[in-house]
């Protein structure tokens, strides 16, 4: 019997019958991502219930020379949690590790296991009068482990930072099966290297994150939200300057959307409507928040908009009059990604450039894309306050799906080359996974990649921890796939 064939029985000893899936039909949902964009095969899916069981699984697989693919909520966009098609890898799902281990409102921290769904963390914080500010479209299904593995961002980065900024401590199972307990809720700890940052954003290639201590904040008790029509991306950059100057850190959200993005949502999402009578080329959704229940945010926001109108920055605006209208406005923003799927293949790109470069970047990139594919529909939206744009592409109306997919790589290069020319990054918050694993070699400094490979070799010398992800293949083949 081969080592791989032996592994399921050994894993059963580690996690019990309830923690092991070997039937192909039952494994199915773990072997295809939520968009049906990536799929693979596995020798088994293992679902440990404790950190010790995770360690036992990793040791068992190491001893057998079998690769481990950690998986959270399986909501990623780059294939980072999918096994390859060899059928020799083991998917390690954290979906049974869903305990909130503790919450400390005085220290403003919450300790949770990696399989806890993001929305559950938000709710646990709210029950104690606190806020956990990470907010994503997939927050009802994505998990803390996946958020950490990809250094998730979302709509609150402008005020609160991304997952790296929201994390104080980690518990990690290393590739040799040892457990590192770094679950410290300290904001000051100058005792050497801050190891947690090696694992955040590493997409499971250096170890399996099993728990985390996360920062909490005082609950937001008042908000003001506005939908603002703009003539250009430059106007959006000008507007955020106006709002920041007047409102300071009360600015908690600033989301930009092209008209094409809004049109798709209006066409395909029920219960939404255009907030304004006239059509405009660009929009931003602006939100202020404060811990005071009556902070006068409406007046502040209106004052900022008044200045924007005086300077011909804004063309029109509506300030939400209640929670229902706030939800409607956010529904327009959050519905973009799903609505685009109704228009055929959605080529998704997640890039970041300096905020000051956004207008020139959009103009240059749009021009190059239209030259490459005349009539292409460009769905640009994102977190303009931190320079992150989701630069998604849909086929020209009436054209063939397969023809459009055939030029996906060419179009990606257009977006990435333009991003690079502005000293940007080709992955702002989605990670590299397998989709950008090889292309990153053309946009990242060679010495930086050498340092990353050195870390991988140090932590995972056998190359068994989520192989084929993040790092470009050497000589075209990942070591564990040879």
UniProtKB/TrEMBL annotation:
Cofactor(s) in the UniProt record: FAD
The keyword Oxidoreductase appears for this protein: yes
Molecular function per GO: FAD binding; oxidoreductase activity
Alphabetical list of InterPro entries matching this protein: FAD-bd_oxidored_4_C (IPR004113), FAD-bd_PCMH (IPR016166), FAD-bd_PCMH-like_sf (IPR036318), FAD-bd_PCMH_sub1 (IPR016167), FAD-bd_PCMH_sub2 (IPR016169), FAD-linked_Oxase-like_C (IPR016164), FAD-oxidored/transferase_4 (IPR051264), Oxid_FAD_bind_N (IPR006094)
Stretches assigned to the FAD-binding PCMH-type domain: 38-219
Keywords: FAD, Flavoprotein, Oxidoreductase
Record's keyword annotation contains Membrane: no
Name of one Pfam family that matches: FAD-oxidase_C
GO biological process per UniProt: respiratory electron transport chain
UniProt similarity note: Belongs to the FAD-binding oxidoreductase/transferase type 4 family.
Protein name in UniProt: FAD/FMN-containing dehydrogenase
Organism listed in the record: Blastococcus saxobsidens
């Amino acid at each position: 019997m081969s080592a791989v064939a032996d592994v399921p029985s050994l894993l059963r000893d580690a996690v019990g019958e309830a923690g092991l899936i070997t039937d192909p039909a039952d494994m199915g949902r773990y072997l295809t991502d939520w968009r049906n964009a990536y799929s693979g095969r596995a020798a088994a899916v293992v679902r440990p219930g404790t950190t010790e069981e995770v360690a036992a699984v990793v040791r068992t697989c190491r001893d057998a020379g079998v690769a481990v693919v950690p998986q959270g909520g399986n909501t990623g966009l780059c294939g980072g949690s999918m096994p390859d098609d060899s059928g020799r890898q083991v998917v390690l799902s954290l979906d049974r590790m869903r305990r909130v281990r503790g919450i400390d409102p005085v220290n403003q921290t919450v300790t949770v296991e990696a399989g806890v769904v993001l929305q559950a963390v938000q709710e646990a914080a709210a029950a104690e009068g606190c806020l956990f500010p990470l907010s994503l479209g997939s927050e009802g299904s994505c998990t803390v482990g996946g958020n950490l593995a990809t250094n998730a961002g979302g709509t609150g980065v402008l005020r609160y930072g991304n997952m790296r900024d929201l994390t104080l401590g980690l518990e990690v199972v290393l590739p040799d099966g040892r457990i590192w307990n770094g679950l410290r809720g300290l904001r000051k700890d100058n005792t050497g290297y801050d190891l947690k940052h090696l694992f955040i954003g590493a997409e499971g290639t250096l170890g399996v994150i099993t728990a985390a201590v996360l920062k909490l904040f005082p609950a937001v008790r008042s908000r003001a939200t506005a939908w603002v029509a703009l003539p250009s991306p430059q106007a959006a950059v000008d507007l955020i300057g106006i709002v920041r100057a007047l409102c300071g850190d009360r600015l908690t959200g600033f989301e930009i959307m092209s008209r094409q993005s809004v049109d798709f949502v209006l066409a395909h999402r029920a219960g939404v409507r255009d907030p304004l009578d006239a059509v405009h080329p660009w929009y931003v959704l602006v939100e202020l928040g404060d811990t005071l229940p009556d902070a006068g945010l409406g007046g502040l926001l209106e004052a900022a908009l008044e200045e924007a109108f005086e300077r011909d920055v804004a063309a029109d605006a509506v300030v939400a009059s209640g929670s229902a209208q706030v939800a409607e406005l956010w529904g327009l923003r959050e519905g973009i990604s799903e609505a685009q799927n109704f228009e055929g293949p959605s080529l998704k790109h997640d890039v970041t450039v300096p905020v000051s470069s956004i207008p020139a970047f959009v103009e240059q990139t749009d021009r190059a894309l239209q030259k490459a594919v005349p009539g292409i529909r460009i769905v640009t939206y994102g977190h303009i306050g931190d320079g992150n744009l989701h630069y998604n592409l849909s086929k020209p109306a009436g054209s063939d799906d397969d023809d459009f997919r055939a030029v996906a790589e060419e179009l990606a290069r257009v977006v990435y080359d333009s991003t690079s020319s502005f000293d940007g990054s080709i992955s702002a918050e989605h990670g590299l996974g397998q989709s950008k694993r090889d292309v990153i070699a053309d946009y990242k400094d060679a010495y930086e990649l050498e340092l990353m490979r050195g870390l991988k070799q140090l932590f995972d010398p056998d190359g068994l921890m989520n192989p084929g992800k993040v790092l470009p293949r050497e000589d075209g083949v990942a070591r564990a796939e040879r």
